[in-house]
User: What shape does this take?
Amino acid sequence: MVLFRWGGGALLDLEKLDFIIAKRILGKMGWFEENFDDIIPEKLKGVPDTYKFRVGDYRIIYTFESEVVFILQVAHRRDVYKNLRSD
Assistant: This one.
């Protein structure tokens, strides 16, 4: 089983979102955590060892090492690439 760790920046991103959108993202993250072993990670172009997970118009940016997934950022698709940061 994979352990998910949220970075401080990702939690702040989530808090800034509308409650309904944040709830949807958290629900989808629960599904993502349960099914992580069956999912083919989608690489983020231009950033090594970084991946994205789509939830509607939002993207969850993450990295992973062995059994730990690090959530780095949650943002709207129009903003995620120009505001990409590493926490």
